[in-house]
Amino acid sequence: MRRRAVARALMLARLGKPSILEALPATAELRPAAEIGRFVRLALAAAALSLAVLVYIAWADWGFAMNEEEPLSDYLLHLADLALSDWMLLPGGLLLLAGLLQLWRRRQPEWVRISLSREEAKVEGPGGTWTTPIAAFSAVAVRKRPGFAVRGTNHTSNVNRRIQAGTTYALFERETLWWVELVHPDPERSLPVWAHFGDFAGPGAERAARGFAQRFGLPLESLAAPATRA
Length: 230
Hints:
By secondary structure, this protein is α+β, with helices and mostly antiparallel strands. The chain has helices spanning 3-14, 32-64, 71-83, 89-106, 156-164, 202-216; strands spanning 26-30, 112-116, 120-125, 128-133, 139-152, 172-183, 191-197, 225-226.
């Protein structure tokens, strides 16, 4: 499966509007760089939090074993010991991760705009624009990638339901990414037009695929074809 198509489907799903391209003509704007920027901020926040915790631990330890004659120099020695300890691998690793993500972010376009009409599909971005007649697409297909997204399950309704059923529950679960794709002979031009997260989003994806197939006069591929990794 083309990585570009999967990435676009992922961003389309995160818009939270699966049917944004169903009422033609329609436009959806994706933000690839902003998507990665969220993870950069999370990594930086985690690094700052872990560093603050380590500094607090050093301060608390210094408070118990304080040298009253030279308190400042004693505390600085504690901080120096902390800086050279293995504990600094945690915030250091998180900062390294944030740096690598930032480098990846700089390689991504700030925006990608998908426009869809009954006659053509158009993808615009800082790197250029390409337009493809709808007749150039060979089919409409439903794709899925199991376990692609992680969501929290610690909502009161979920917890109560599982407790009443006598079953255990996890704080996080992996969800399936479902999307509908206009299939093009050139895999890089296959275009996601509907996307949603959820293990039970399959029927919605199938209904959307039938609607697009009927609207564009394209054949419908076998439903729920698994997405293979690039």
